[in-house]
Amino acid sequence: MERTGSVNADPGPASDTNGRFTKRRNWAGFWVLGLCNNFAYVVMLSAAHDILIKQETGNATSSTQATLTVGLQGGNSSNSSRYDCNPVSTAAVLLADILPTLVIKLFAPFVIHKMPYGVRVLLCIVMASSSFLLVSFSSAVSMSIIGVIFASFSSGLGELSFLSLTVFYTRDVLEGWGSGTGGAGVAGALLYSGLTQAGLSPRVTLLIMLVVPVFMFISYFFLLVPPSTLPQWRSREAEYAVVGSEERQQLINEPEEEEQHEIPTPVDRSTGPLTITEKLHVIRGLLRFVFPLGVVYFAEYFINQGLMELLYFPNFSLSHAEQYRWYQTLYQIGVLVSRSSLCCFQFRKIWLLSLLQVLNAVLLFFAVLYQFLPNAWLVFVIVLYEGLLGGAAYVNTFYFISKETKDRHREFAMAASSVGDSLGIALAGAVSFPVHRYFCDL
């Protein structure tokens, strides 16, 4: 009796074990991809400016870049403002880093299906590696700026591609991706600061970070277990052509008496590429997700780039530079925690998160204007909470887009909706300029 049915029972547990192992591999693979994709974006600007300080040539451009670096470090520019602030807002650097990403996210979803996933990943790896090399060996301001643009291009292309890639896997990989992108902020800042603090030059530190694109390559091509439906080395159009040919051959081979009961037109239509009309229809349906996400990131980066530098408490135990660094660190910790929370809970009402983030921005705006906060401890709590809201909005937006979008539209929807956060960030950078100037002129 013990042997009865054992032949049929054995494959079940083994198959289940293999399935769990595959899911864990894919989760870990997307975590590493999220970390590597955002890593260069996190560290590139501060590294570029550190390099530029060592390239002082006495010209006006070098002086401007050095002044901007001091601003990023929370220094004073010896102006007559009642605020210890720089005349050049840190939003200038933010715009330089986000605009290439924004352009890619706006236009790439309409044509990116022509490029296979394997080619996209290799392009991201090449661009990220080039950014590290260009900035580390730069001998002119323009060369460093090109390096920053390469990092932005790699990050933008990678984000929309990997979000689209999640539709070929179980939905839990979104949690791995979100957690990895959150970890990039903390890991990137700590690793760069730690290596330079240990005495390594910015150039050597950036060359060490060339290992990050290598990890992306290993994670995508060796750690992930790609499904058979993944268009790895051929475009979506080529895949549709093959599928359509197979379906037409199948219809030809079927008996004639069954053909009169067949209605092949809907099948042919569903396996073809999305038309422009369909894509615009999908985008219209995505607005309920993209708009709240954009508002969250607009308020978030308005705080980070327009107000955070001005939240200085001179009688606090930490210097201005130290206060600014802790603001950024706590913010990144909040993002990491909330982007890793998808396994614990999901929150559908993204509009509520956007409202709470706007309230944060309004509160800190008036705190800068009237200086009523007693010390930095309250700001520490607020920026941690700010990071929690931003990270939660990001992962929940893409989770519910993946869950509520039709199978045929999901891949395009995941790519197109990635523009929401970048658009909010770019608008925040533009608005932060006049706000920062207003406060510094007081």
Automatic annotation (TrEMBL):
In which compartments does the protein localize?
Late endosome; Lysosome membrane
Matching entries from InterPro entries are given as: Battenin_disease_Cln3, Battenin_disease_Cln3_subgr, MFS_trans_sf
Domain of life, source organism? Eukaryota
Q: Does the keyword Lipoprotein apply?
A: yes
Cellular compartments per GO CC: early endosome; late endosome; lysosomal membrane; membrane raft; neuron projection; trans-Golgi network
The annotated topology with respect to the bilayer is:
Multi-pass membrane protein
Biological processes per GO annotation: amino acid transport; endocytosis; establishment of localization in cell; lysosome organization; membrane organization; negative regulation of apoptotic process; regulation of intracellular pH; regulation of protein metabolic process
Q: Which Gene3D superfamilies match?
A: MFS general substrate transporter like domains
**One Pfam annotation, family name?**
CLN3
Query: What UniProt keywords apply to this chain's record, in alphabetical order?
Result: Endosome, Glycoprotein, Lipoprotein, Lysosome, Membrane, Methylation, Phosphoprotein, Prenylation, Transmembrane, Transmembrane helix, Transport
Q: Where are the transmembrane segments?
A: 28-48, 88-108, 120-153, 173-192, 204-225, 282-303, 350-370, 376-400, 412-433
Protein family per UniProt: Belongs to the battenin family.
Query: Protein name, please?
Result: Battenin
Species in which this protein is naturally found: Channa striata (Snakehead murrel)
